Amino acid sequence: MSELIIKDAALLDLDSGEIVPGSSVRVAGERIVEVAPGGRITGDAPVLDAAGRTLMPGLIDAHVHAAVTTLDMPALARRPASRLGIETAGLLEAMVRRGFTTVRDAGGLDRGIAEALDTGLIKGPRVFRSGRVISQTGGHGDFDPVGTGDPRLCACHISSNWFAHVADGPDAVRRAVREELKDGAHQIKIMASGGLSSPTDPLDMVQYTHEEIRAATSEAAARGTYVLAHAFAPEAVVRAVTAGVKSIEHGFLLDAASARVMAEHGAFLVPTLVVLEQLAEIGRRWGYPAQSLDKLQAVLSAGTNAVELALDAGVRVGFGTDLLGESHPEQGRELLLRARVQTPADVLRSATVVNAELLGRAGELGVVAPGALADLLLVSGNPLQDLSPLAESGVGIDLVMRGGEVVRGGLP
Predict the structure, then answer these.
(1) What is the pTM of this model?
(2) Buried-exposed string 51-63: b where 16+ CB fall within 10 A, e elsewhere
(3) What is the residue-averaged pLDDT of the chain?
(4) What is the per-residue pLDDT across 139-172, written as a single tens digit (0 to 9) for each?
(5) CB 326 within 8 A of CB 277
(6) Which residue, 123, 227, 369, 389, has fewest beta-carbon neighbours within 10 Å?
(7) What is the spatial distance between Cα 131 and Cα 111, in angstroms, rounded to a whole number?
(8) Which alpha helices (H) appear in 272-379, and where do they start and end?
Protein backbone atom coordinates (compact mmCIF):
# COMPACT_ATOMS: atom_id res chain seq x y z
CA MET A 1 0.00 0.00 0.00
CA SER A 2 1.54 3.31 -1.09
CA GLU A 3 1.80 6.08 1.51
CA LEU A 4 2.33 9.82 1.34
CA ILE A 5 2.71 12.51 3.99
CA ILE A 6 1.63 16.05 3.15
CA LYS A 7 3.31 18.56 5.46
CA ASP A 8 3.13 22.31 6.14
CA ALA A 9 -0.37 22.67 4.72
CA ALA A 10 -2.90 25.35 5.57
CA LEU A 11 -5.74 22.96 6.35
CA LEU A 12 -9.23 24.16 5.42
CA ASP A 13 -11.53 23.29 8.32
CA LEU A 14 -15.06 23.65 6.96
CA ASP A 15 -16.67 22.86 10.32
CA SER A 16 -15.19 25.97 11.88
CA GLY A 17 -14.76 27.95 8.69
CA GLU A 18 -11.10 28.50 9.47
CA ILE A 19 -7.66 27.78 8.01
CA VAL A 20 -5.24 25.85 10.26
CA PRO A 21 -1.62 26.51 9.19
CA GLY A 22 1.27 24.09 9.68
CA SER A 23 -0.93 21.00 9.31
CA SER A 24 -0.08 17.50 8.07
CA VAL A 25 -2.01 14.61 6.51
CA ARG A 26 -1.04 11.00 5.89
CA VAL A 27 -2.53 9.12 2.94
CA ALA A 28 -2.34 5.32 2.60
CA GLY A 29 -3.72 3.81 -0.57
CA GLU A 30 -6.98 5.53 -1.42
CA ARG A 31 -7.75 6.74 2.13
CA ILE A 32 -6.67 9.41 4.57
CA VAL A 33 -5.36 7.64 7.67
CA GLU A 34 -4.07 10.49 9.83
CA VAL A 35 -4.69 14.22 10.13
CA ALA A 36 -2.65 16.54 12.37
CA PRO A 37 -4.17 20.04 12.40
CA GLY A 38 -1.36 22.46 13.16
CA GLY A 39 1.08 19.59 13.70
CA ARG A 40 3.64 17.32 12.07
CA ILE A 41 3.37 13.67 11.06
CA THR A 42 6.59 11.65 10.91
CA GLY A 43 7.39 8.40 9.15
CA ASP A 44 9.25 6.77 6.28
CA ALA A 45 6.67 7.62 3.61
CA PRO A 46 7.49 10.11 0.83
CA VAL A 47 6.77 13.69 1.88
CA LEU A 48 5.03 16.39 -0.15
CA ASP A 49 5.80 19.88 1.13
CA ALA A 50 2.64 21.96 0.73
CA ALA A 51 4.71 25.08 1.45
CA GLY A 52 1.82 26.77 3.20
CA ARG A 53 -0.71 26.23 0.45
CA THR A 54 -4.33 25.46 1.32
CA LEU A 55 -5.24 21.78 1.60
CA MET A 56 -8.95 21.09 1.15
CA PRO A 57 -11.32 18.29 0.14
CA GLY A 58 -12.08 17.72 -3.52
CA LEU A 59 -15.21 19.43 -4.81
CA ILE A 60 -18.46 17.61 -5.60
CA ASP A 61 -20.78 18.64 -8.46
CA ALA A 62 -24.18 17.04 -7.88
CA HIS A 63 -25.63 17.87 -11.30
CA VAL A 64 -23.61 17.22 -14.45
CA HIS A 65 -24.44 15.92 -17.91
CA ALA A 66 -21.11 14.57 -19.09
CA ALA A 67 -22.66 12.82 -22.10
CA VAL A 68 -24.38 15.97 -23.39
CA THR A 69 -21.37 17.05 -25.41
CA THR A 70 -22.83 19.90 -27.46
CA LEU A 71 -25.47 22.59 -27.07
CA ASP A 72 -26.70 21.77 -30.57
CA MET A 73 -29.37 19.27 -29.50
CA PRO A 74 -30.38 18.14 -33.04
CA ALA A 75 -26.71 17.49 -33.85
CA LEU A 76 -26.26 15.59 -30.59
CA ALA A 77 -29.09 13.22 -31.52
CA ARG A 78 -27.28 12.35 -34.76
CA ARG A 79 -23.86 11.66 -33.24
CA PRO A 80 -22.69 8.03 -33.16
CA ALA A 81 -22.20 6.48 -29.75
CA SER A 82 -18.45 6.03 -30.33
CA ARG A 83 -17.93 9.76 -30.86
CA LEU A 84 -20.08 10.60 -27.83
CA GLY A 85 -17.98 8.26 -25.70
CA ILE A 86 -14.72 9.90 -26.73
CA GLU A 87 -16.12 13.39 -26.15
CA THR A 88 -17.53 12.36 -22.76
CA ALA A 89 -14.16 11.00 -21.65
CA GLY A 90 -12.57 14.34 -22.45
CA LEU A 91 -15.21 16.27 -20.51
CA LEU A 92 -14.80 14.03 -17.44
CA GLU A 93 -11.02 14.36 -17.42
CA ALA A 94 -11.36 18.14 -17.57
CA MET A 95 -13.79 18.08 -14.62
CA VAL A 96 -11.40 16.29 -12.30
CA ARG A 97 -8.54 18.57 -13.32
CA ARG A 98 -10.73 21.52 -12.29
CA GLY A 99 -10.91 20.03 -8.79
CA PHE A 100 -14.24 18.18 -9.03
CA THR A 101 -13.20 14.79 -7.74
CA THR A 102 -16.78 13.50 -7.48
CA VAL A 103 -19.80 14.21 -9.69
CA ARG A 104 -23.37 13.01 -9.87
CA ASP A 105 -24.38 12.53 -13.48
CA ALA A 106 -28.01 13.63 -13.76
CA GLY A 107 -28.85 11.76 -16.93
CA GLY A 108 -27.32 10.21 -20.03
CA LEU A 109 -24.07 8.64 -18.84
CA ASP A 110 -24.04 4.95 -19.71
CA ARG A 111 -22.55 2.00 -17.90
CA GLY A 112 -19.64 1.69 -20.35
CA ILE A 113 -18.20 5.07 -19.41
CA ALA A 114 -18.62 4.28 -15.71
CA GLU A 115 -16.77 0.99 -16.18
CA ALA A 116 -13.99 2.73 -18.11
CA LEU A 117 -13.55 5.14 -15.17
CA ASP A 118 -13.59 2.34 -12.61
CA THR A 119 -10.97 0.29 -14.48
CA GLY A 120 -8.70 3.24 -15.23
CA LEU A 121 -9.17 3.21 -18.99
CA ILE A 122 -10.04 6.89 -18.77
CA LYS A 123 -9.36 9.50 -16.11
CA GLY A 124 -12.08 11.45 -14.39
CA PRO A 125 -13.98 12.05 -11.17
CA ARG A 126 -15.78 9.48 -9.10
CA VAL A 127 -19.23 9.25 -10.73
CA PHE A 128 -22.66 8.58 -9.24
CA ARG A 129 -24.68 7.69 -12.31
CA SER A 130 -28.41 8.22 -12.80
CA GLY A 131 -28.59 6.38 -16.13
CA ARG A 132 -31.53 7.28 -18.33
CA VAL A 133 -33.93 9.87 -16.97
CA ILE A 134 -37.60 8.93 -16.52
CA SER A 135 -40.08 11.26 -18.27
CA GLN A 136 -43.73 11.33 -19.18
CA THR A 137 -44.86 11.75 -22.78
CA GLY A 138 -44.46 15.41 -23.66
CA GLY A 139 -42.27 15.91 -20.60
CA HIS A 140 -38.80 17.32 -20.16
CA GLY A 141 -37.14 14.08 -21.26
CA ASP A 142 -39.28 13.60 -24.38
CA PHE A 143 -37.30 14.93 -27.35
CA ASP A 144 -39.24 13.17 -30.09
CA PRO A 145 -40.12 15.78 -32.74
CA VAL A 146 -43.74 16.77 -33.31
CA GLY A 147 -45.52 17.21 -36.62
CA THR A 148 -43.78 14.30 -38.34
CA GLY A 149 -46.78 12.02 -38.85
CA ASP A 150 -48.52 9.45 -36.68
CA PRO A 151 -47.36 9.15 -33.05
CA ARG A 152 -45.38 6.07 -32.10
CA LEU A 153 -47.57 4.37 -29.51
CA CYS A 154 -47.07 0.95 -28.01
CA ALA A 155 -48.97 -1.17 -25.50
CA CYS A 156 -46.08 -1.15 -23.01
CA HIS A 157 -46.38 2.64 -22.45
CA ILE A 158 -42.59 3.02 -22.61
CA SER A 159 -40.24 4.22 -25.32
CA SER A 160 -36.52 4.55 -24.78
CA ASN A 161 -33.43 6.21 -26.19
CA TRP A 162 -29.88 6.83 -24.94
CA PHE A 163 -31.02 9.65 -22.64
CA ALA A 164 -34.53 8.82 -21.43
CA HIS A 165 -37.26 6.29 -20.82
CA VAL A 166 -40.55 7.98 -21.72
CA ALA A 167 -42.94 6.11 -19.45
CA ASP A 168 -46.61 6.79 -18.63
CA GLY A 169 -48.52 5.39 -15.67
CA PRO A 170 -47.24 3.96 -12.37
CA ASP A 171 -46.56 0.48 -13.76
CA ALA A 172 -44.55 1.81 -16.69
CA VAL A 173 -42.59 4.15 -14.42
CA ARG A 174 -41.88 1.26 -12.06
CA ARG A 175 -40.60 -0.90 -14.93
CA ALA A 176 -38.39 1.91 -16.27
CA VAL A 177 -36.90 2.54 -12.83
CA ARG A 178 -36.23 -1.15 -12.31
CA GLU A 179 -34.46 -1.31 -15.65
CA GLU A 180 -32.07 1.51 -14.73
CA LEU A 181 -31.39 0.08 -11.28
CA LYS A 182 -30.71 -3.30 -12.85
CA ASP A 183 -28.19 -1.59 -15.15
CA GLY A 184 -26.29 -0.17 -12.18
CA ALA A 185 -27.70 3.34 -11.73
CA HIS A 186 -26.72 4.74 -8.34
CA GLN A 187 -29.90 6.83 -8.09
CA ILE A 188 -32.90 7.66 -10.30
CA LYS A 189 -33.71 10.93 -12.05
CA ILE A 190 -37.29 11.84 -12.94
CA MET A 191 -38.66 14.87 -14.74
CA ALA A 192 -41.33 16.55 -12.60
CA SER A 193 -41.82 19.81 -14.52
CA GLY A 194 -41.17 21.57 -17.79
CA GLY A 195 -37.64 22.56 -18.71
CA LEU A 196 -35.53 24.61 -21.08
CA SER A 197 -34.10 22.05 -23.50
CA SER A 198 -37.24 20.02 -24.21
CA PRO A 199 -39.31 21.24 -27.16
CA THR A 200 -42.95 20.71 -26.16
CA ASP A 201 -43.45 21.55 -22.46
CA PRO A 202 -43.95 24.95 -20.79
CA LEU A 203 -41.66 25.70 -17.87
CA ASP A 204 -44.50 25.80 -15.33
CA MET A 205 -46.02 22.51 -16.51
CA VAL A 206 -46.37 19.98 -13.66
CA GLN A 207 -45.36 16.52 -14.81
CA TYR A 208 -46.13 13.08 -13.41
CA THR A 209 -48.88 12.34 -10.93
CA HIS A 210 -48.26 11.68 -7.26
CA GLU A 211 -48.83 7.96 -7.91
CA GLU A 212 -46.29 7.87 -10.75
CA ILE A 213 -43.66 9.62 -8.66
CA ARG A 214 -44.39 7.36 -5.70
CA ALA A 215 -43.81 4.34 -7.96
CA ALA A 216 -40.32 5.68 -8.70
CA THR A 217 -39.42 6.55 -5.11
CA SER A 218 -40.67 3.26 -3.69
CA GLU A 219 -38.64 1.26 -6.22
CA ALA A 220 -35.55 3.32 -5.50
CA ALA A 221 -36.04 2.84 -1.75
CA ALA A 222 -36.30 -0.90 -2.26
CA ARG A 223 -32.76 -0.77 -3.67
CA GLY A 224 -31.52 1.46 -0.85
CA THR A 225 -31.29 4.57 -2.97
CA TYR A 226 -33.34 7.67 -3.84
CA VAL A 227 -34.87 9.84 -6.55
CA LEU A 228 -33.83 13.28 -7.74
CA ALA A 229 -36.35 15.37 -9.66
CA HIS A 230 -35.97 18.10 -12.23
CA ALA A 231 -38.50 20.69 -11.06
CA PHE A 232 -38.99 24.40 -11.67
CA ALA A 233 -42.56 25.21 -10.63
CA PRO A 234 -43.60 25.32 -6.94
CA GLU A 235 -46.47 22.86 -7.49
CA ALA A 236 -44.07 20.41 -9.13
CA VAL A 237 -41.64 20.75 -6.23
CA VAL A 238 -44.36 20.10 -3.66
CA ARG A 239 -45.75 17.10 -5.54
CA ALA A 240 -42.28 15.60 -5.88
CA VAL A 241 -41.13 15.93 -2.27
CA THR A 242 -44.45 14.79 -0.80
CA ALA A 243 -44.15 11.68 -2.99
CA GLY A 244 -40.73 10.89 -1.55
CA VAL A 245 -38.22 12.68 -3.80
CA LYS A 246 -35.00 13.47 -1.92
CA SER A 247 -33.37 16.04 -4.20
CA ILE A 248 -34.94 18.88 -6.21
CA GLU A 249 -32.84 20.01 -9.14
CA HIS A 250 -32.79 23.68 -10.20
CA GLY A 251 -35.95 24.88 -8.40
CA PHE A 252 -35.70 28.20 -10.25
CA LEU A 253 -39.35 29.15 -9.63
CA LEU A 254 -39.37 28.11 -5.96
CA ASP A 255 -41.53 30.21 -3.63
CA ALA A 256 -41.55 30.49 0.17
CA ALA A 257 -44.39 27.99 0.61
CA SER A 258 -42.79 25.27 -1.50
CA ALA A 259 -39.43 25.89 0.21
CA ARG A 260 -41.10 25.25 3.58
CA VAL A 261 -42.54 21.97 2.28
CA MET A 262 -39.06 20.95 1.15
CA ALA A 263 -37.66 21.67 4.59
CA GLU A 264 -40.48 19.77 6.31
CA HIS A 265 -39.73 16.68 4.19
CA GLY A 266 -35.96 16.89 4.54
CA ALA A 267 -35.41 17.40 0.82
CA PHE A 268 -32.27 18.93 -0.67
CA LEU A 269 -32.13 21.68 -3.29
CA VAL A 270 -29.41 21.54 -5.95
CA PRO A 271 -29.33 24.95 -7.65
CA THR A 272 -27.61 25.32 -11.02
CA LEU A 273 -27.17 29.04 -11.59
CA VAL A 274 -24.27 28.88 -14.03
CA VAL A 275 -26.24 27.04 -16.70
CA LEU A 276 -28.60 30.00 -17.01
CA GLU A 277 -25.71 32.43 -17.38
CA GLN A 278 -23.93 30.29 -19.95
CA LEU A 279 -27.00 29.57 -22.07
CA ALA A 280 -27.65 33.31 -22.23
CA GLU A 281 -24.04 34.07 -23.17
CA ILE A 282 -23.12 31.35 -25.66
CA GLY A 283 -26.23 29.30 -26.36
CA ARG A 284 -27.13 30.97 -29.64
CA ARG A 285 -23.53 30.81 -30.90
CA TRP A 286 -23.36 27.03 -30.43
CA GLY A 287 -26.78 26.15 -31.83
CA TYR A 288 -28.89 25.83 -28.68
CA PRO A 289 -32.51 25.69 -29.94
CA ALA A 290 -34.23 29.07 -30.39
CA GLN A 291 -37.40 28.00 -28.56
CA SER A 292 -35.28 26.97 -25.57
CA LEU A 293 -33.54 30.35 -25.52
CA ASP A 294 -36.98 31.98 -25.51
CA LYS A 295 -37.92 29.91 -22.43
CA LEU A 296 -34.70 30.97 -20.74
CA GLN A 297 -35.87 34.56 -20.36
CA ALA A 298 -38.56 33.49 -17.87
CA VAL A 299 -36.04 32.14 -15.33
CA LEU A 300 -32.80 33.97 -16.13
CA SER A 301 -32.91 36.20 -13.05
CA ALA A 302 -34.80 33.86 -10.72
CA GLY A 303 -32.07 31.47 -9.58
CA THR A 304 -30.46 33.42 -6.74
CA ASN A 305 -33.88 34.25 -5.28
CA ALA A 306 -34.69 30.54 -5.13
CA VAL A 307 -31.44 29.85 -3.26
CA GLU A 308 -32.21 32.57 -0.73
CA LEU A 309 -35.76 31.27 -0.16
CA ALA A 310 -34.46 27.74 0.36
CA LEU A 311 -31.79 28.84 2.82
CA ASP A 312 -34.30 30.97 4.75
CA ALA A 313 -36.61 27.95 5.06
CA GLY A 314 -33.80 25.73 6.37
CA VAL A 315 -33.46 23.59 3.25
CA ARG A 316 -30.12 21.86 2.81
CA VAL A 317 -28.68 23.41 -0.34
CA GLY A 318 -26.17 21.43 -2.39
CA PHE A 319 -24.11 22.42 -5.40
CA GLY A 320 -24.59 21.65 -9.10
CA THR A 321 -23.91 23.14 -12.51
CA ASP A 322 -26.00 21.37 -15.22
CA LEU A 323 -23.68 22.65 -17.96
CA LEU A 324 -24.08 21.33 -21.48
CA GLY A 325 -21.60 20.84 -24.29
CA GLU A 326 -19.40 23.83 -25.03
CA SER A 327 -20.23 25.50 -21.69
CA HIS A 328 -18.62 22.80 -19.52
CA PRO A 329 -15.32 24.69 -19.00
CA GLU A 330 -17.21 27.28 -16.91
CA GLN A 331 -18.06 24.70 -14.22
CA GLY A 332 -16.19 26.59 -11.51
CA ARG A 333 -18.15 29.81 -12.09
CA GLU A 334 -21.00 28.36 -10.07
CA LEU A 335 -18.83 29.02 -7.01
CA LEU A 336 -18.76 32.75 -7.76
CA LEU A 337 -22.47 32.96 -8.59
CA ARG A 338 -23.38 31.22 -5.34
CA ALA A 339 -21.09 33.60 -3.43
CA ARG A 340 -23.54 36.38 -4.28
CA VAL A 341 -25.98 34.89 -1.75
CA GLN A 342 -23.70 32.81 0.53
CA THR A 343 -20.35 33.25 2.22
CA PRO A 344 -17.38 31.49 0.56
CA ALA A 345 -17.31 29.03 3.47
CA ASP A 346 -20.97 28.13 2.95
CA VAL A 347 -20.49 27.78 -0.81
CA LEU A 348 -17.63 25.37 -0.19
CA ARG A 349 -19.70 23.44 2.37
CA SER A 350 -22.43 23.05 -0.26
CA ALA A 351 -19.87 21.67 -2.72
CA THR A 352 -18.36 19.27 -0.19
CA VAL A 353 -20.06 18.18 3.06
CA VAL A 354 -23.66 18.94 2.00
CA ASN A 355 -23.28 17.14 -1.32
CA ALA A 356 -21.59 14.22 0.44
CA GLU A 357 -24.63 13.93 2.70
CA LEU A 358 -26.91 14.08 -0.34
CA LEU A 359 -24.96 11.24 -1.96
CA GLY A 360 -25.15 9.17 1.22
CA ARG A 361 -21.37 9.35 1.71
CA ALA A 362 -21.00 11.69 4.69
CA GLY A 363 -17.63 11.27 6.39
CA GLU A 364 -16.18 9.56 3.32
CA LEU A 365 -16.39 12.37 0.75
CA GLY A 366 -16.07 16.13 1.12
CA VAL A 367 -13.89 16.07 4.23
CA VAL A 368 -10.22 15.85 5.19
CA ALA A 369 -10.51 13.33 7.99
CA PRO A 370 -9.22 9.87 8.94
CA GLY A 371 -11.10 7.19 7.03
CA ALA A 372 -12.23 9.54 4.26
CA LEU A 373 -11.29 8.93 0.66
CA ALA A 374 -8.14 10.85 -0.24
CA ASP A 375 -9.81 13.33 -2.59
CA LEU A 376 -7.65 16.38 -1.95
CA LEU A 377 -6.77 19.73 -3.50
CA LEU A 378 -3.74 21.94 -2.90
CA VAL A 379 -4.77 25.50 -3.67
CA SER A 380 -2.93 28.80 -3.89
CA GLY A 381 -4.43 31.50 -1.68
CA ASN A 382 -7.22 31.37 0.86
CA PRO A 383 -10.57 30.21 -0.62
CA LEU A 384 -12.41 31.53 2.44
CA GLN A 385 -11.48 35.01 1.24
CA ASP A 386 -11.42 34.52 -2.55
CA LEU A 387 -12.97 31.69 -4.57
CA SER A 388 -11.51 32.88 -7.87
CA PRO A 389 -8.51 30.49 -7.91
CA LEU A 390 -10.97 27.59 -7.75
CA ALA A 391 -13.55 29.13 -10.04
CA GLU A 392 -11.46 30.13 -13.04
CA SER A 393 -10.98 26.66 -14.57
CA GLY A 394 -8.97 25.67 -11.52
CA VAL A 395 -6.01 27.92 -12.39
CA GLY A 396 -5.15 28.21 -8.68
CA ILE A 397 -5.17 24.45 -8.09
CA ASP A 398 -1.64 23.09 -7.88
CA LEU A 399 -2.52 19.48 -7.13
CA VAL A 400 -5.60 17.26 -7.45
CA MET A 401 -5.69 13.86 -5.78
CA ARG A 402 -8.59 11.45 -6.33
CA GLY A 403 -8.67 8.37 -4.15
CA GLY A 404 -4.97 8.70 -3.38
CA GLU A 405 -3.98 9.06 -7.05
CA VAL A 406 -2.58 12.34 -8.31
CA VAL A 407 -4.46 13.43 -11.44
CA ARG A 408 -3.10 16.96 -11.66
CA GLY A 409 0.23 18.29 -10.48
CA GLY A 410 3.11 16.15 -9.33
CA LEU A 411 4.78 14.49 -6.35
CA PRO A 412 8.40 14.69 -5.23
Answers:
(1) 0.95
(2) eebbbbbbbbbbb
(3) 93
(4) 887 766 555 555 555 656 788 888 899 999 999 9
(5) no
(6) 369
(7) 8
(8) 273-282, 290-296, 303-313, 333-338, 344-349, 355-358
